[in-house]
Amino acid sequence: MKRVLTTCPYCGTGCNFYLTVDDHEKILGVAPSTENVVNKGQLCIKGWNSFQFVQHPDRLTHPLIRRNGTFERISWDEVIRVIVRKLKDIQAAHGNDAVAFFSSAKTTNEENYLMMKLARAVFKTNNIDHCARLCHSSTVTGLGGAFGSGAMTNSISCVEEADVIFVIGSNTTEQHPLIGSRVIKAKRNGAKLIVADNRTIRLARMADLHIRHKNGTDVYLLNAMMQVIIEEGLQNRIFVEDRTEGYDILKQTVLDRKYSPEQASVATGVPAGRIREAARMIAKAPKAMIIYAMGITQHSHGVDNVRSCAHLAMLTGHIGISGTGVNPLRGQNNVQGGCDMGALPDVYTGYQAVTDPDIRKKFETAWHVDSLPDKTGETVTTAINGAHEGTIKAIYIVGENPMISDPDTRHVREALKNLDLLVVQDIFMTPTAELAHIVLPGVTYAEKDGTFTSTERRVQRIRKAIEPVGDSRPDWRILCDVAREAGYPHMAYQGPRQVMEEINALTPGYKGITYDRIEKLGLQWPCLDTDHPGSPVLHQDRFTRGKGAFVDSEYRPSMELPDADYPFVLTTGRVFTQYHTGTMTRRTQLLEREEPEAFVEIHPQDAKGLGIRNDQSVSVYTRRGEVQAKARVTDVVPPGVLFMPFHFEEGSVNVLTNNVLDPLAKIPEFKVCAANVKKPG
Amino acid sequence: MKVISEPRLVELLKSLQSEYQVYVPIELSDGTRVLGTMDEGPVSLLGGQVAAKPTAFFFPQMDSLFHFEKGALREGASTAKPICLVGLSAADAAGLGFIDRFYNIDFGDDIYNRKREHSLVAVISGKLGNGAKFEPLAGKNCDIEFAYDGSRFYVSAYTPKGKALEQRITDEDSALPFEHLQRMSVAHGQESISILRHASQLILAGKVTDDFWQKIADECIACGSCIYYCPTCTCFDVYDCGAGDRGERIRCWDACLLGGYSREASGHNPRNEAERSRRRISHKLEADMLRFGELGCVDCGRCDMFCPTGIGIHAVAKRIVDRFS
I want to staple A665 with a disulfide (CB 3.0 to 4.6 A). Which of A137, A401, B15, B149 is the partner? Predict the structure, then answer.
């Protein structure tokens, strides 16, 4: 028997545990680390059950190529040759930017780094992106603009130090259970809790103030709260004066009559008194912290939502010290790392811009190439649109499943089928892989070494516990093989440790984060050299960009609002025992048993009006399509709102969602579209 | 009375490796202590009770019951050597005694018994954790006990297997320090046990109201940690994992806090969230009391130590006592 210390592959909290492996390489269970500061011997139900999928019989074990409509096995050598030849042929015919690479927030930092190096240095395109586009691209853009850094400003432990916790658009106890649990503890220990979410999530049950604003009216709500703060003189004048710029812009916006609590009450559905109360509680608190997630980001105005959160924190001076801050909770185990590693179309590692000639020069030298592409590439969402339109001819996807995760599935299917080459590298035959020309078997977190960066910017190790199943290969190795076959000799590594050394050399914030230093406990970036202790709290004396920036943030309504034909707002989300597109959790007994099928939450009043009973199968439909789901008649949702989780292929809510994007972040509007529901037949 | 120094005890345990698969308290790479093999990390006999429940060696999180292929069944290979578990606390040993009984009521669970019947179980108790922590003596529920007085272990054997091992220890000394440890043990933990008993009485008397359990349920994130850490929790789920005509039947730890545990095929769940929170506590404090005349909680403290939201059994028992007595 052996035990291998690693990091949980589910959410971005970054819990550490040991995988227990028997002498026959069978994983038997997990033992939480009692020493790790993040989880202290605790795990959520997904963490406790985070290994069964690893050795599931459905694992992809051989490279596959589609011939005459069916998949056939092909050798590794040959498949790598075919991929490279086809990619090069497509680029020769249609230009370098006819190819796009989707990296994965499930894979390691090292692999994300290699994927973006492969795209840029070998295939000369900045068309590299990953699923951060779908979750927190608005955070990267919004907080990057306001503060100079688009990451959680504080640490998870800060939750326990806050006097007021403002949770907006985060179902924390379900999606980041061990952060949500800290909110519960903080509340019991005397902190005040404000929850802004129109579903009565668990935290709302114990909140001092539950704000049930209409979906998509976050900017309206936050601007109204800021008007109250300014009108009542509750802003932190010293902070605003010393640490920020553009305050006049904010004032001009939020002091407009339309953002009065009374007007806002009409727009948001929240009583004016409650808006005032929330504003006062936050402004008067010695330490207030904002926690947000997809409820803020996944809108066609996601960047504005994020900016408004940043504005509120700056206006009240609740940033730069422990127990405060603007704290976007990153969804995937390594979505922070995917962004940090530059698996984004506009930046290299550490958010160094591809449009900056000096930065390009630095990477050209390090990577031994004459030139690197200088124009910002396509995103996950715009590349799918490009495939639909025929400008993108090939996509190489690692560990992403757009057929379930991206909006408007019909559009995604048409786009992927329109490609001359679709390569999918994954651990299971996903609905996306089923459309591929070539499928490559990658490995899980338990079969390779590397690092994940958690939501609190903590870079932590994962370690190989078992050999790769079947003929699967670590993703980093596959990417290096593709580079070598493409004639690029500078992607040959002994292993992930050596890749991290290259990342250290090229990335100021990661410079001091070496494998030797994170053997027992991860470090939080920025970590500027090998003596630097890491950074639990950002923006302490100055913002990363210098002064914090207030910018214009007018309310814009969601793109598709209810009407006579589609009278409901449909919003999407997740449940605590399933994870994203379900490839892993749906192959784990207890997790799948808990929530085995698609459901739609509908308010009792609405259900009654339509004659819909609890647990009855119903059709939910929008302008994009129709899916079946079990009705869950509950007052968790307010009247007029339908909620569906997006985990279930057989009742996939993304068949219904609206493929409209935030103009800056290109994030889709998963949280609001117009829908209707009916009994079948 | 037989006594043994720490280095000699380590030597003795090493010598058992030819007969047993020996697991002792060790320190893993980041300092987490578990019961593991001596080649996994430095031996750490004096750190007190380990976090993971030792009963997992006999009732593991995942257990293969049998493999099937084309209609034929093949049971999993039994371990080559019996298990020797060293370093249980008195509470752990009581937990093991509890589930030994559970798995043999009416009929014996052969999957469990196969691992358990030839095993050797040793408690380590006394003044552990640099003298700061006291682990009470078990006095039973194990084959042999090593009680540390701050300088060496006093050996008590309770079964023939334990006595055989005791005979391999040669040093003897006065039992006076051991008797002192016994006296310390009698007083130890009485307060926390009395809160559990008091809460148990209140539950049995029907004093605890539904709204109380709803409040606990509100604070429960259904992580399952209390159950996964509990040495007396025995619930499991059974499922088949396979492809085509071959696969494996597996049992895995279940958790009564999950809705799927009690949901009916119709979709109806007779236990709502509040009821599930009640069941977790009242099984230990009510049902086991009625069935066995004793609490189902052995007071190991794990659920209170590791519950992310602070509603371990003691915390809940205290709230029951505070509100309903």
Answer: A137
In whole angstroms, what is the distance from residue A430 CA to residue A399 CA? 10
- A178 interfacial to chain B (CB closer than 8 Å): yes
What's the pLDDT at B244?
A: 83
Measured CA to CA, the distance from residue B66 to residue A446 in angstroms comes to 24
A182 and A280 share one domain: yes
Backbone angles phi, psi at A48, to 5 degrees: -65, -30
Total beta-carbon pairs less than 8 A apart between chain A and chain B = 139
Low-confidence ranges of chain B (pLDDT < 70): 77-79, 129-132
CATH of residue A626's domain is 2.40.40.20
A425 DSSP β-pair partners: A398, A440
Q: How confident is the model at residue A509 (pLDDT cuts 50, 70, 90)?
A: very high
Residue A582 — pLDDT band, cuts 50, 70, 90? very high
From CA A220, how far away is CA A214, in angstroms rounded?
10
The ipTM, to two decimals, is 0.96
pLDDT (0 to 100) of residue B130? 60
Residues A167, A293: one domain?
Answer: yes
Is the Cβ of A613 closer than 8 Å to some Cβ of chain B? Answer: no
Q: How distant is the alpha carbon of residue B288 from its chain centre?
A: 16
Provide the edge-to-edge strand list for the sheet that holds B62-69: B72-75, B62-69, B246-253, B236-243
- Asked if the Cβ–Cβ distance from B225 to A56 is below 8 Å, we say no
pLDDT of the residue at B131: 54
Kindly state whether residues A313 and A353 are assigned to the same domain: no
> What would the 3-class secondary structure string for A37-56 be?
CCCCCCCCHHHHCCCHHHHC
Q: Residue window 180-209, chain A: list those with CB within 8 Å of chain B.
A: 180-182, 184-185, 188, 202, 205-206
How far is CA A358 from each of CA A113, A181, A355, A363, A510, rounded to the nearest angstrom?
20, 45, 9, 9, 19
Between CA A522 and CA A461 the distance in angstroms is: 7
In B118-203, DSSP assigns E strands to 120-128, 133-135, 144-148, 153-157
Maximum distance among all Cα pairs of chain A, rounded to whole angstroms? 72
Percent of chain A with pLDDT over 70: 100
**Up-side HSE of residue A540: CA atoms within 13 Å toward CB?**
10
User: Is there a single domain that holds both residue A176 and residue A201?
Assistant: yes
A171 and A105 together in one domain: no
Question: Apex CA A475: angle with CA A470 and CA A479, to 5°?
Answer: 125
Contact A42 B56 (CB under 8 A): no
Which residue out of B40, B58, B214, B223 would a mutagenesis test of the A interface target, given it has the greatest number of A Cβ atoms within 10 Å?
A: B223
Q: Do B223 and A43 touch (CB under 8 A)?
A: yes
| B7 Cβ contact partners less than 8 Å away, ≥ 6 residues apart | none
Are residues B250 and A589, on separate chains, in Cβ contact within 8 Å? yes
Q: How far is CA A502 from CA A331, A491, A497, in A?
A: 26, 11, 9
- Domain of A298, CATH number, reads 3.40.228.10
Residue A654: give the domain boundaries: 568-678
B40–chain A Cβ distance below 8 A for any pair = yes
For chain A, say whether B236 makes contact (Cβ under 8 Å).
Answer: no
In percent, how much of chain A has pLDDT > 90?
Answer: 99
Which residues share a beta bridge with B88? B123
Q: The CATH number of the domain where A449 resides is what?
A: 3.40.50.740
Residue A579: what residue type? Answer: Y
Strand ranges in A495-580 using DSSP code E only, listed in sequence order: 523-524, 548-549, 568-573
Q: What is the DSSP string of A575-640?
A: -TT--TT-TTGGGSHHHHHHS-S-EEEE-HHHHHHHT--TT-EEEEE-SS-EEEEEEEE-TTSPTT
B80 touches chain A (CB under 8 A): no
Q: What b-and-e string marks burial along A390-420, b requiring 16 or more CB atoms within 10 Å of the CB?
A: ebbbbbbbbbbbbbbbbbbbebbbebbebbb
Å from A40 to nearest chain B CA? 8
